[in-house]
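FYI - complex with S-adenosyl-L-homocysteine, inputs then prediction.
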Amino acid sequence: MSLKEKIFSEITEKGPITVERYMSLCLYEKHIGYYSSSNPIGESGDFITSPEISQVFGELLGLWFVALWRSIDLRSRFNLVELGPGTGTLMADILRVTGKMSEFSQQASVYLIETSKRLRLTQKKRLKNFPINWVCSLQHLPNQPTFTIANEFLDALPTRQFIRINNKWKERHIDLGPDGNLFFVNLPSSNQRELQFLYGHLPENQILEICDHAKNIVADLSDHIKLNGGVALFIDYGSYGGFGDTLQAITKHSFTDPLNNPGNSDLTTHVNFEAISDTAKSKGLRTTELISQRDFLSALGIRDRSRALSRNMSKSEQRKHFRAVARLIDQNSMGELFKVLAITSRNANPLPVFE
Ligand code: SAH
């Protein structure tokens, strides 16, 4: 059964599906979902992420982890974890740089948490020269300090959408029309009281996005960090709070209709970092302020690092290289839209760059 047939039959049998269910089916349905059946990331795929744009991104993150590790003077083993590692490029760049610090590498146990079997195979190939462990959830990590990186991970998690109209909360669903086209429909929510209590102060007729998957993962990670120590670094596009419909679909590097051609485009929503921060705080962790990718990478010396890298390049390689670096930090490219947030235990030392 194709993904389209699966979605159509589910709606025909059970009625309209939530946006969250639609995203889950499109992205993660076994064998037929987007991440199980295609190679989405990179120039030849549908979308490109920072580590795929330039190796400088992963190298600077590696340096940040080394600075962090030095600042806490860690003398025991620790977990170096990546959530949703895509093609494995980011971890390869991090490990190449941190490999120069033999003590760091000797103490680090590297764990990748990835749901897509297909991407796990890509990661295995990409990282064949490094000792890596794959686990399916945070519960499988050993109890030791844990440094986590998640780049463009939270935006890929299925999200619910709500809207308050005439003082009644509705949840946005997807239905199938007689013409065979999918369309959005708002249906009364069964959580009126809870939604009103938590979000009653927000304006009417505006879409509110709630990502329970992200909250649950951040809650589990927070419990782990509280128990064992460590830090998690989230890099993604989004903002602190806010509302509005941010569901978007990308195919071959261009926006497309999220309801058109399900399973053949990447579906995401913007990350609400306030919800991430609140979840971590409710678990007793400390969260940093939200800073732009531009400020984060600039503080880590992206300009010097990219100049140093360019020395052995030809003129045309240099042009390509500097264009890629500019894409990561320019205000009208990824520099401002992408944000960085870290969470750590309340009594941890100040975090490099942030504090
Ligand atoms: N971080 C990568 C790829 C981002 S795409 C990069 O920067 O290039 C999102 C990734 O998250 C994919 O690898 C996808 O399969 C994975 N993913 C989505 N949901 C997940 C979950 N619940 N647990 C682990 N991995 C997940």
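Residues 58 and 317 are 19 Å apart (CA to CA). The chain has a mean pLDDT of 96.
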